[in-house]
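SAMPLE LOG
Freezer: B-3
Tube label: C17
Construct: single chain, 86 aa
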Amino acid sequence: MDNAIFNKVEFKGAVEKAQLKKNGEVTIQLTADIDDIDMNTLSLVMDSNGGVQIKLEGNQTELVDEDEESDGQIDLLDQEEDEDEY
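STRUCTURE (predicted):
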């Protein structure tokens, strides 16, 4: 049986920052235009009992060969940052 989804928020945004914490958790910070998000629905989703499901999709415009050097590429995961730092 599929789990029912009562509140769903979809919006265009960007991953601003991702941090791997010492306890193995990942904190992901997103940015989006306020016109793309229904804040009332977002509030309902954030208050959901039983957690939420997150799906991130990217619009890939250029593929970089893994064997090539990728100067200028940014590593989004800051390894083992302090949990209090955001």
